[in-house]
Every structure is written in C-alpha cells, then in structure tokens.
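Regression report. Comparing outputs from two consecutive submissions.

Submission 1:
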Amino acid sequence: MSGTVDVNGPSNARGSGECSAPVERSAASAFAAPAGLMARRFRGFLPVVIDVETGGFNAATDALLEIAAVLIDMDAGGELKRGATVSYHVQPFPGARLDPAALTVNGIDPFHPLRPALPERDALQRVFREVRHALRTYDCRRAILVGHNAAFDLTFLNAAIARAEVKRNPFHPFSCFDTATLAGAALGQTVLAKAVTVAGMPWDASSAHSAVYDAERTADLFCHVCNVMRASYARAEERACALGWLAAPPVEAITDDPRMAT
C-alpha cells in the first residue's frame, strides 16, 4: 500500500499565458501544452487529491494512520485524468488517541507487526516530494487539496504538518476543492459511493475506507465533474480573456499568505 507509481508525468513544456481562443482547442494549437493548460485551468493551482484514515475525528488529538495522494494529470486537449498514487501507512504520534470505533470502520491495526508505517514527518516529506515534482511539471505555483469532505482531510494534514514541523508545505493552507460539494451540484449526490455510481463508475464497498481506494475514487469523481464542465469553463475563459484577466498574473501571486511560503 506504500510507495510511488508512475510519477514522471507529462513533459515540462510551458504555455504562453496569452488569450486567443477558448480552452477546448485542437492538440495542434499554440496553447496545447499540458503545463500551460493546467496552470491556466486552476489559476496557477495544481489539484492534488488527499485522503487520510485516522484514529478519530479530532485532528489535534487523534492519530493520522494512512495518507494517500493522487496526482491529477491533463492531456493535450485539456481533459483531466487520474494520475499517480502515492500512499503511506503512518505511525501514531506519541500520545495520539485511537478511537476503537474509528479503527472498526477503517479496519486498521496501528500496531500490527507487519504494518510498514513511517513517522509522520517521513510520510509527509515523501508525499510532498512527489507533489513538488508535479508542480514543476505543470508549472503551477501551489498545490490545492481535493478531498471528499475536504475540510476533514485538510485539517488532519495541517495538524500533522504542525506536529512534524514540516517547513516546506506545497499545499494552500486553507483553500480546497470539495468533491462532496461538486458532486452535489453536478450529480445530485453528496455521498462518495453514490456520486461515483451515478457518474457511471464502479464502486467496491469492500475496498472503501482505505486511503488509497477513497483517494482514487475521489480523483475519478473530480476529473469527471471538471470534464463535463469544460464547455462552461471555455465560455468563462473567453469572458476572462475579454476582460483582460488572463493577461495578468493571478492575484495570489502578489498577495500570498506568508504561511504559504516555500
């Protein structure tokens, strides 16, 4: 369950950032480079799906037990697809609370002798290394967490970062993309299993509550919703171009929160 899969990603070609035509254009067009398209699609942010399995609901007191990160790729036509998965078992931090009810749901035995768990700092640094590689690949400035009920995952991630004193956090510290919200608006379903199913994708209930499985299904759902909204995005991009917004750097490039410094 731990390790890295296929993290090379697409080439490091860069887009010009200039406005010309709507984003849905042929691969032969001047703005077909995936790096430029990805950075432009989310205003310099790179969506990365994070799912955590924990020993409870309180990020300050309860253990982080698993973390999975799924990268989001984009093809030359601007379509999103699930990329590489990175995942690690995590050792409970000293004094961490382990709620038996939570362990029953996720099926984790934190102290199993064959569980290849890493300290929080090591697990986070390994995940962040792959995220930073993806940021360079797509010429993005910052990662933004994608999650199903994303506030939960972001809260646990930030708590672990603070405990482990990790200084180079590639993620925005408070913004996120929540697929429960996106699926509720696009599909009329907010439960992950139901949203995935009505989107026409398979769901294996026996694999749920694994950080890897939940993160990968969340990534599939995020890509699906974004892809079906491409026409709406293309119209919005045309209007943004007409207003001159895309010719200038994103506002966050000038007004970043100092906690976001890398």
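Submission 2:
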Amino acid sequence: MKLITFSLKDDPNISRIGAVKNDKIIDFYSSNLPNDMINFINLGDEGLKQASKIIDLSKTIYSYDEINVKAPISVPNKILAVGLNYKKHIDEAKEVTEHHSENVELQEQFPNIFNKQNSSVNDPYGDVHRPNASDWLDYEGELGIIIGKECRHVTYENAISCIYGFTIVNDFSVRDWQFRGPPHTLTMGKSWDTHCPFGPYIVTSDEIEDPHNLVLKTYVNDEERQNSNTSLMIYDCFTLIEYLSTAFTLMPGDLIATGTPEGVALTTQDWLKPGDNVKVEIDKLGFIQNNIIQEPNNTSKS
C-alpha cells in the first residue's frame, strides 16, 4: 500500500491521509480512520485492513491535479540519520579532508548516527531554502525507513517486524556549518528549516521484497549526480534498527534516513543555488523533487 498525506487545493488547511492506486488518490477522510499518519500507523495491521476495504470501495477519489502532496508525517517524533554509510561516499569524503574540521578522523567501526530536528521536515515537492547564512548547500538522496511500532533492544532477525514502510529522503546539508568544530556539528549542518523533504508516500514493507536491492538516483537540473544501489550500504536497515534500539526506544512514525552514496556536491564544491531543481528517485518508491530558492527574509520569528 502507498500511503499519502495531502490537502485539497480547494481546502488547503485540512490535512488528509489516503492511498495511491493507479495514480489516483483514495481519500480516507470520511471514514473512521485517523486523519494523521502517526495515529494511523499506530493501528497496525487492523488499520491496513480497514484501509484496504476503503480502497476497494473507492468512494472518494482525487487526481494529483486536485491535491497538494504533503510530507507523509508532518512531525516525526525522531528523525535519525546515518552518515558515511556507503564505501564510495567515505572515499570521496576522505579526498576532501581540507574541508573537514582539523584533527577529526572519519571512523568506520560503527554507524555514524546523528539527528535532524523535526522542524526541518518539508513536503516532497516543497521549496528548499538556500540559507542566508551560507552558500554551501548540498543534496543527499537516501532511502528512508518508517518505524511501525514501539520497539527497544530489537534483534537483527526481528528488525523487519518493526519497519512499517519505506520512503525517499533528501538529507539537505549546509556543509560549512556541518564542519564547524572539532568535533563536527552534524545536527547544526543538517537541521535547517525545509532541509528534510521526504515522501512522496510511505510504501508499506510488504510491497518491498528486498529493501537492500533498490536503485537510487539523484539529479540536479536533470543531470545525474548519484546512481547507486541500497545493496551497497555498509550497515543495512536491520543492522541500523538493532544498533539504534540498543540505546533508545523507537516509536511509530520515527524516520531513519539510511545514508547517501557518492556523488554529493562536497567533492566538486558545486553548491546548490536558487533556481536549481533536485530530484531523488528510488525503485518502487517514486520520486521527490524540490526547487531551491533563497531563504525569504520573512523567516525571522521572535
């Protein structure tokens, strides 16, 4: 099932959830199901059973022209991310060590975990801000995991049972802020407002036979920048869940961005600029696409 969060163009202030089938959106709004994705995920298999009946009836259907696609989860409890999870990305990072904090070495013994603040969430087709405070804006196409239930101390073998589904993430990064230190301040480089677009929907895990064999591509202005496969992740999805849940409880709707392959702008210093368009696509998960704009002057709040 492809689960989507959206609003109607004629009623943009009301958030709805539904399912995508045959390029049409089947609305759950008038049913007894929640209108919030986390609450829907909390229903587990029972929620999916009820949703399947609604899909079969197909009473309320919209075309993409009638809706605005929103981030599948507006405020995840946690956004966890993994740095340097592809060997070739590690290699390219090592080649540009002059841009890293002095005396900081890249460790490869354990997963490099950091978090993005949930205020960075953006819609899958939303505008992304190049900050007024920096020109060093970079892209990172990634496979995202959506956690389906509360879990702790999960074994590798049981990790699949904790995955509700998969999505696409672009882990936009402000590199000069990321490299402040030592040590690196990953959260400060990764958590800027608008810098975590994901979607366009959640594809439930039963539809993804093998999450570790998906082609991932990133384009900037239609030029291919990244072309890899999730089979090349150093730490696979199940290892990441096992590792993370050793330390803390994972909750329904938590988002885990699993790392990006080689091909980021860091290696060329060809930073994203206003007017650029970035597209990330992954087999069976669709694509997300974002225009880069200069951060508006009205983002200040006090």
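Expected: both submissions complete independently.
Actual: both completed, but the second showed a warning that disappeared on reload.
Relevant detail on submission 2: The longest helix spans residues 44-57.
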